[in-house]
């Protein structure tokens, strides 16, 4: 019953297999090996474009490198105030971006509305050179609340951003979970809707430590190799990074893994609802936020359940936590099994 | 016959086994798992001190994080002009260090002499606040030339550095190769001789992507967790980083692997010398620099040999490359086998 | 009728005189001249402590250097969301501070309350190393709204800050204007109340381009000379920077200038109130915010009046601007004369 | 007899006059005043092009802002190892440039030869993304040795730089002194020879604290306003910065001042040569390097002479200092008078 995070899971079998297969013979370092080339091409096929791809070991690296690449040091990055880049990366975007400014915005379910972005752009435009001007927009897919942006929402945000010269970054640490919930292709959910650069996560989905920065317009990636290298994010035995992606992408495996994780989240949400527990935001990915009775905490923990309790501060204005309630984040992964879900729900049900 | 680099090898079997064992069940992320704690303790035991340990995926990260932590932005890092930090990390130390200055010094066999360091400290002291002052010294063990610093040499360099307030960093990407050549313990070869912080490499030795920043005085590591995190170098599924070290360190495996690599380098050097090929620097680790006849290049490459030819510029003043010669770097690893060595030597011998 | 800003005024006569007196003979550069030493001592006397003083040409430099010196790159600076450092320095604190984070907080009249600071500290503490933690507090004296912090308010904010390990910075671009309104000495209004470092402004008060960073504890200023130098803020003909302060501080001249500016602001506020114009915040320094009828704008401008109209967004929640009103900032300086005030009021009065 | 530096002089009368004239009435801040516009236009006329001009208070700021603007963080700046940017700015270029790398090169008389630059470009090209690549070239006019680059030399260096994609920066802290020695216009000595950006110094020439960054191609200056502002180098009472330039440039005053300074240096060099003192480098600006007998030091100092003795280390390989000699730098300025020169020479002559 480990619902603490999807990064508490191990490697998915298909990723491990690819890793094992890569552990043969010699290969040129620093991404000059054949497998890296193949995976880069494969990612281009997945996204149906001539993408420039940069594999890195962490999501923080993917986000910070991306944002720094599309935002000048005197520029601002608009994003949701609860986004990972805002509160969980210890200032990585500011560090990589030479002191750029993160501008946190509100929004129910950790989603940004077009109106909010529009107001923020108006607020952070002009008064040059005194004021930092908005230079990019970062949206998280799926969000920290487990909600997702639909294709039309993405397109609308990108439209307003591009109309004002902002680049659009998508933090896709849980891109797969969002995608399989939509009736859309990877291309439709990204560059065709206007996304310029994607942090495409594999780690949470079933890899060990593998994320891809994907520039959909190759020209925008000029000097990204230097940026990645000087950040210490170019792996020498790069084939193992490539192998993780090879396994992850192979034959739609990544989508299969995500579908399972989402299904487990659905089962959990359904079970909890059936037990009378309020579910806070729409469950659109692999994350469930529930308002559990506080009294259950000790019992659930004692039974081996792992999850995080979120404070009121973090919840945002769109949630009211009752005095006897705790806001609990429950994350399912490819490794979550039905029995765990059912046991957890049963524990809740018996109170 | 892949002698291009020790990072062209795959994972050593013992490391892979540990990785497989780690791929079980759930584990807390970001280094809060049990295996990470165990490995950190183990590293403390290896070095016989209460070390503060930070695992990261690349050597560039380990070096740059270390140097930034012991050098203020207005400080200078003394190092050999051929050192990896100087010419192969695309300015990572400057980036991580907020614009610190790398000061490259000469020296035969890529080694710094006490006199050279002493002169450099004198040169880069005073004239405050106009001049960047020397703030740290970085030595590479084993060096880019495949030579090593003996314990008394390290102690001598550390003494002069500390006498002037400089911290001492050791880039130990090939620490194991150096250590097994000396009659010294890990502690003797580092902090007992005065080293403050070590980039302890496992990747080149047989891991996949695992390096440890080791502060021998825990107090000097304050805020290193934040520094690592904001650089994107705190892995979420951290257990796999820990597992690599667990396998690498287990029962002296790392030393066994290094002894093999060194033995292969010795065999190669002996064979080439027997074939009349001049070996440039003492072979003290797993690297051989040889002055091969230029005419052999095509033949060796055709036979499948991989190695790098180094230009005159990079060679330094202590080597003269004849007009018909090429300076070739040949690196052995844990994965190098005698048959490859013998085949290569035979190819050279037959001319 | 130039009320656009106090920086639209020229040099005050006493400052100019000092500048002229300094323009004699040769003097060592970079602050090694006698006048600089004298001024540094004088500032120590003004603040009744052994202060470390660094003169710089701009307030943005003073603020950014100060904040960077007391805040690690992974730290956060708490300040009012309308503060100059937040919205008018184009990211200077982030740049100087290696990517530190500015955390804007609300508060009526551009002032921070103890409760607000307390909540922010709680919000930005812990969750290490993922979250940027609050590391310093910056308060503006006088504030952007023309209000001031009284000694007990400063002491209360400093107490809560220090209790949690935060350093306290005061942006004193209009320190003199605030001080002369209080029954307090410079020492009482700063370090005795807990302020660690002050940006002590002279430019707006009557100098040409001169600000002083004042560390009340000399030990906290270690390496500040290097930080200033590498920012390009150590003037070579430093005597002219010192001379401005010499003239400004001489015989209480700075307080006399500030008293005049404040008196002009009072006269303006009184006149406008008499004309039925609402004054938004208490006039405690040399700034008046008034809700003028929109219809007057063209007429006033045509008559030569200069001022800035502030948008609703910038006003904060504590002000309501009626549909026919405009929020106008009117700043008086040492150079403002009664006749201008009276003419402006008359223009408003006649509608 | 103050020959310590040209920055030990005060303001030239014509600059002071302009400053006094500027001290009238109100003027918009931050460079939005009329005088600033006029001076910017005037500078364009001086250089016969549509230049983008940015006034700043120090040469270090001018250099660091310029270099950061034309060099990516992963780029290298080629310059003479004795250049001010290399050894006297405490890492300002690295700080402003996000950790760019300064690459110091040798050369007699502090001048770079085409061959040296060509070799350096070859050395710092390729091996991407591991190696920092040369991205810009900085030449100093006049040099730290008091020598100058002739138009054909500048053109030759720019040609080789541009051929490899490097931008060219000229540190013209003593641009006037160099220019009046040549039969060339400002345009010919800069952009027509290929210079992209110039730090045009006025401070050493007779201003108080005023330097101009001049981009000869306006397009290359995009976002420079933001860069200057966030560095704290946009002065609020900007008119006084403009006024200094107005006075300096007025009617060729800057050239008159420089001619005087050079003539004084010539007189000094002639006098010393006549006294049997070797002059080290050609006296082409306002600086004389002489090998004075060591025994004279105490006597000269006692008589009130001020100068700097340069160590062997700093002298470079092209000078040999005898055991009884000291290498002395003597700098003349607009304020130097013949009588001082003659007195100094007489003191040397009498031994």
Using only C-alpha atoms, the radius of gyration of chain A works out to 20 Å
Q: What is the CATH topology descriptor of the largest domain in chain A?
A: Aspartate Aminotransferase, domain 2
Strand content of chain A: 15-25%
Rounded mean pLDDT of chain A is 96
CATH class of the largest domain in chain A: Alpha Beta
State the order of secondary-structure elements of chain A, H for helix, E for strand: HHEHEHHEHEHEHEEHHHEHEHEH
Fold and architecture overview:
Four copies of one chain form a homotetramer. Chain A has 351 residues and is of the alpha/beta class. The first copy, chain A, folds into two domains: 13-252, Type I PLP-dependent aspartate aminotransferase-like (Major domain) (Aspartate Aminotransferase, domain 2, 3-Layer(aba) Sandwich); 254-350, Aspartate Aminotransferase, domain 1, CATH 3.90.1150. Chain A contains 14 helices and ten strands. Chain A has helices at 13-22, 34-46, 59-70, 84-87, 92-96, 114-123, 151-163, 175-179, 224-230, 239-249, 253-274, 296-302, 312-315, 338-350; strands spanning 52-56, 75-80, 101-105, 133-140, 167-172, 197-201, 211-215, 287-293, 308-310, 325-331. In chain A, the strands form two sheets. A seven-stranded mixed beta sheet of chain A has the order 1-7-6-5-4-2-3, sandwiched between helices. A three-stranded antiparallel beta sheet of chain A has the order 8-10-9. In chain A, strand 5 (167-172), helix 8 (175-179) and strand 6 form a beta-alpha-beta unit. The radius of gyration of chain A is 20 Å and the shape is globular. The model of chain A has no long low-confidence stretch (mean pLDDT 96). Chains A and B meet through helix 1, helix 3, helix 5 and helix 9 of A and helix 1, helix 3, helix 5 and helix 9 of B.
């Amino acid at each position: 019953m480990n619902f603490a995070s999807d990064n508490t899971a191990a490697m998915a079998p298909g990723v491990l297999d690819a890793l094992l297969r890569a552990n043969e013979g010699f290969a040129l370092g620093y991404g000059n090996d054949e497998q890296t080339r193949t995976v880069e091409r494969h990612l281009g096929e997945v996204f149906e474009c001539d993408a420039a791809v940069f594999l890195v070991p962490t999501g923080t690296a993917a986000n910070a490198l991306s944002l720094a690449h599309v935002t000048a040091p005197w520029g601002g990055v608009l994003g949701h105030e609860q986004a990972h880049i805002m509160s969980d990366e210890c200032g990585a975007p500011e560090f990589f971006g030479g002191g750029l400014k993160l501008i946190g915005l509100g929004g129910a379910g950790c989603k940004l509305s077009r109106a909010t972005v529009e107001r923020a752009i108006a607020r952070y435009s002009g008064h040059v050179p005194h004021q930092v001007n908005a230079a990019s927009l970062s949206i998280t897919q799926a969000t920290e609340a487990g909600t997702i942006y639909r294709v039309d929402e993405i397109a609308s945000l990108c439209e307003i951003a591009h109309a004002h010269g902002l680049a659009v970054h998508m933090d896709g640490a849980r891109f797969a979970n969002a995608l399989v919930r939509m009736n859309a292709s990877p291309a439709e959910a990204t560059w065709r809707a206007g996304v310029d650069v994607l942090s495409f996560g594999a780690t949470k989905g079933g890899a060990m430590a593998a994320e891809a920065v994907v520039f959909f317009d190759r020209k925008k990636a000029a000097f990204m190799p230097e940026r990645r290298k000087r950040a210490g994010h170019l792996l020498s035995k790069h084939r193992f990074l490539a192998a993780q992606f090879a396994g992850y992408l192979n034959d739609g495996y990544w989508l299969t893994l995500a579908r399972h994780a989402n299904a487990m989240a659905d089962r959990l949400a359904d079970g909890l609802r059936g037990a009378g527990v309020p579910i806070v935001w729409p469950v659109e990915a692999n994350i469930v936020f529930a308002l559990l009775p506080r009294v259950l905490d000790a019992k659930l923990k004692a039974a081996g359940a792992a999850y995080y309790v979120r404070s009121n501060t973090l919840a945002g204005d769109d949630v009211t936590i009752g005095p006897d309630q705790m806001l609990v984040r429950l994350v399912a992964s490819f490794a979550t099994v039905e029995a765990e879900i059912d046991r957890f729900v049963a524990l809740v049900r018996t109170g």
